[in-house]
Design goal:
single chain, 508 residues, 3 domains, seven-stranded mixed sheet, binds adenosine-5'-triphosphate
Length: 508
């Protein structure tokens, strides 16, 4: 017996190993050594990712009257990206180590002067992590010991490399070599992937893989207004792949170079209370994450400081998630004013306005943008669902049970159908019949091999919420079968009708 337990503190190694072992995620092009920053979703992973995407689409678009969906092309006219500011400014600060040839994002490379008796004796550096400050302090103590400098060491004051003065950079050690002198000053690195459209390979044929899906909504704004019977406030949503040539893809699927985004642009009147609308969307997104099983305790909010916002932005709040590698951005909710539509109106010469019946005036609507990565939700859901617990079987033996406590909404398989014995035709026949019926609407798995306990464990590890076992009572008595709950491991008898009722209620 077991009772539901809190999520285990899980390491990324454990999650990556589970993903590979059970077919959730593989490295892209693995047989050729892999390609850094690219991943493939396997049979279970693609089901689960589709479930996350479908839940979002259903709740965000289909179940609301004020939001419509689109699917714009990945490669758009290059002028889109000039107007949006991406060609000029979609950059990350890049730092090279000239000796090791490693590249770093300057805002993820931290350093601190080693100050002894009020004098700077040298510098230490460390890459961004949960323990950057502790690592830098330890490095500073080590520095003092190695150089045998006497005196009082001041507590380190970490800064990132974008904040380094030009004369400090040659003194900061490279994380790759541990020695100073090889780091270059940060420079802007544009993250857009370029390609060519058509047979010519010259500057006139350059196009870009989109770095976000959002511009599709702005560029199609007028088309939707003219055809979609929408009235302010209303939203346009889309789900699709985005591409960023990240300098340091890392933390598995958290930061990759090809990823999926689910974005929505919510257009409001220029005089509307944007702050209230922004807050409402933050809460909607938070509640939605909880509805697909993310624990509230792992979620927090981060308001971007006003000083760091783009000039047009009124406010940005990120919903943060407690990943095994630290608290990181999961979902950004930005109040973008009317910047994007205005930019496209100017660049295309086509007004992007709406007519206000009340004032008989035209204006450019403002927008609230909740933008999230499907892959980041996927990783958050897996990490939060992973539990290892000690259980005792009927014979009194204790073993470790690995269970993914995924919400039934996103679990890749909803029900496993298990005949008690595989060599009894009547049991197998009934199990097959039920399995085929469930499969018309829900993902199901049929398993007849091995002891029943082993079959339960296999389903626990992939997060299947329910197992039904067809036994002799099913075929000889009342037709009911055993329903076993993944989290409590409790079993009860249930009719086919009740099973479908349960699925309808829980999988939506
Ligand atoms: P970060 O600061 O982590 O690079 P960002 O602020 O640049 O992210 P946005 O441009 O706001 O991200 O993109 C919206 C969402 O898309 C993010 O909140 C995140 O969920 C997702 N996302 C962005 N970049 C990546 C990536 N490289 N890999 C996976 N998901 C990503």
């Amino acid at each position: 017996m077991s009772t539901p337990s809190a999520p285990t503190e899980v390491s990324m190694e454990t999650i990556v190993a589970l993903c590979k072992r059970r077919g959730f995620i593989f490295q892209s092009s693995e047989i050729y050594g892999g390609l850094n920053g690219f991943f493939d979703y396997g049979p279970l992973g693609s089901e689960m990712k589709k479930n996350i995407r479908d839940c979002w689409w259903n709740d965000m678009v289909r179940r609301r009257d004020d939001i419509v969906g689109i699917e714009s092309s990945i490669i758009m006219h290059p002028k889109v990206w000039h107007a949006s500011g991406h060609v000029a400014g979609f950059t990350d600060p890049l730092v090279d180590c000239k000796v090791s040839k490693q590249r770093y994002r300057a805002d993820q490379l931290f350093f601190a002067p080693v100050v002894i008796d009020g004098k700077t004796a040298g510098y230490v550096s460390a890459l961004e992590s949960e323990s950057t400050a502790t690592e830098l302090q330890a490095a500073a103590e080590n520095f003092k010991r190695k150089k045998a400098i006497q005196g009082a060491l001041a507590p380190v004051e970490p800064r990132d490399l974008t904040e380094a003065q030009p004369d400090e950079i040659p003194q900061i050690p490279s994380p790759a070599t541990g020695e100073p002198g090889s780091l270059t000053p940060p420079r802007a690195f544009n993250m857009m992937f370029e390609t060519y459209v058509g047979a010519l390979r010259d500057a006139s044929a350059v196009a870009y893989l989109r770095p976000e899906t959002a511009q599709g909504m702005f560029v199609d704004f007028k088309n939707v207004v003219d055809t979609g019977r929408v009235k302010l406030p209303f939203g346009i949503a889309q789900v699709g792949k985005s591409f960023r040539n990240e300098i340091t893809p890392r933390n598995f699927i958290f930061r990759s170079r090809e990823f999926e985004q689910m974005e929505m642009e919510y257009f409001i009147h220029e005089d509307a209370d944007w702050s209230k609308c922004h807050k409402d969307w933050i809460e909607w997104c938070r509640q939605w994450l909880i509805s697909i099983g993310l624990p509230e305790s792992h979620l927090s909010l981060y308001d971007h400081p006003k000083a760091k916002l783009s000039f047009y932005s009124k406010g940005t709040t990120d919903i943060m998630f407690k990943y095994p590698f630290g608290v990181q951005e999961l979902w950004g909710i930005a109040a973008r004013g009317n910047y994007d539509l205005t930019q496209h109106a100017e660049a295309s010469g086509k007004p992007q306005e709406i007519f206000d019946e009340a004032t008989k005036k035209k204006f450019v609507p403002h927008v609230i943008e909740p933008a999230v990565g499907t892959d980041r939700i996927f990783l958050a859901a897996l990490c939060a669902a992973y539990v290892e617990e000690q259980v005792t079987d009927e014979k009194g033996n204790t073993e470790t049970r690995i269970v993914l406590r995924l919400s039934p909404r996103i679990a890749p398989v909803k029900v496993a159908v298990l005949p008690l014995l595989k060599n009894k035709e009547a049991l197998v026949g009934r199990a097959q019949e039920l399995y085929k019926k469930i499969k018309r609407k829900y993902t199901a798995f049929y398993d007849e091999s091995g002891a029943i306990g082993r079959r339960y464990r296999r389903q626990d590890e992939i997060g299947t919420p329910w197992c039904v076992t067809i036994d002799f009572d099913t075929i000889e008595k009342d037709g009911t079968f055993t329903l076993r709950d993944r989290d409590t491991m409790q079993q009860k008898r249930i009719t086919e009708d009740d099973l479908f009722k349960l699925l309808d209620e829980q999988v939506y």
